[in-house]
Amino acid sequence: MIKCQLRSLIAAKEMRENRRISYREIEAETSISSSTLSRLGKNKMRQFNDKLLSALCHYFNCQVGDILQYQPGEYRDSENASSLE
Hints:
- The two termini are 16 Å apart.
- This protein is 55% helix and 7% strand.
- 12% of the residues are buried.
- It has a two-stranded antiparallel ribbon with strand order 1-2.
- It has six helices and two strands; from the N terminus they run βαααααβα.
- The chain has one domain (2-62): 434 Repressor (Amino-terminal Domain), CATH 1.10.260.40.
- The protein is mostly helical and 85 residues long.
């Protein structure tokens, strides 16, 4: 399963900058809607496009691998699992 590390990235940036960071602030800087950021923070996103990932990488000054991490476990879409083989 792919896990989004948005909450961890926000927490680390908050500690570095010694201030609170809201989804609204990230939205203003990245043009990613607060609702999308909320879904990312709750690991409810199923697709990640290049514009979204590029904006987050720029904002957090990180790499895609810092945002998304693979964690072995249950595959969410078992219907499509066989098409990947």
